[in-house]
TrEMBL record:
Protein name stated in the entry: RNA transcription, translation and transport factor protein
Source taxon at top rank: Eukaryota
Family: Belongs to the RTRAF family.
Gene name of the record: Rtraf
Record InterPro entries: RTRAF (IPR019265)
Pfam family, one: RLL
Length: 217
């Protein structure tokens, strides 16, 4: 529902995110205005949301994640010692060794992070963010990634990433992922070109015999 959606955005800004000063929230609060979509688009840019206004589900997840982070930041002392009921009896040492064991893949922040990373790395997106991860973690994909390939060394500092994560190691990892993705796209383009040549050889009229270097029937 459009009205509920707009009210939800206003509530998040008023109660949790509070990016604007109170006196600057007028346009966003005017949910019945025809210009509200423009105000919302400006708001998304101001809070550095990586999604477009048409991507509502992703936007909602991302804004909720932002609100949770800010809520925690405002009450860090209250939440830092909190432990989920189901995790109170777990072995802390084991958790430290396996930090991903208790990862909640349904967490809106996690989902928004996956989608944002896909956008930043220009990886083809899927409606189900878990499908994107599975496609990258199939046995075939892992086996392919494990194959050693000879190539020339790459100077990462000469490749512009186009964004900054704020962490040098993450920036380097993102550069590597983007270069690997570009390599996959080039391999796909090569296969497409080979397929086009093969089809043209079959349907060409007059027939072309590449082996003889001549055109004719």
């Amino acid at each position: 529902d459009e009205t509920e959606f707009r009210n939800f955005i206003v509530w998040l800004e008023d109660q949790k995110i509070r990016h604007y000063k109170i006196e600057d929230r007028g346009n966003l609060r005017n949910i019945h205005s025809d210009d509200w979509p423009k105000s919302f688009e400006k708001y998304m840019k101001d809070v550095n949301c990586p999604f477009k206004i048409q991507e509502r589900q992703e936007t909602v997840d991302w804004l909720l994640g932002l609100a949770v982070r800010l809520e925690y930041g405002d009450n860090a002392d209250k939440y830092k010692d909190s432990t989920p009921d189901g995790a109170k009896n777990t072995d802390n040492a084991a958790k430290n060794v396996e930090p991903l064991i208790n990862l909640d893949v349904n967490n809106p922040d996690f989902k928004a992070g996956v989608m944002a990373l896909a956008n930043l790395l220009q990886i083809q997106r899927h409606d189900d963010y878990l499908v994107m991860l599975k496609e990258r973690l199939t046995q075939e994909a892992i086996a392919k990634a494990s194959q050693s390939k000879e190539g020339l060394p790459v100077a990462l500092e000469k490749h512009i990433l186009g964004f900054d994560t704020g962490d040098a190691l993450l920036n380097e990892a993102a550069q590597i992922l983007r270069l690997l993705h570009i390599e996959e796209l080039r391999e796909l383009q090569t296969k497409i070109n080979e397929a086009i040549v093969a089809v043209q050889a079959i349907i060409a009229d007059p027939k072309t015999d590449h082996r003889l270097g001549k055109v004719g029937r």
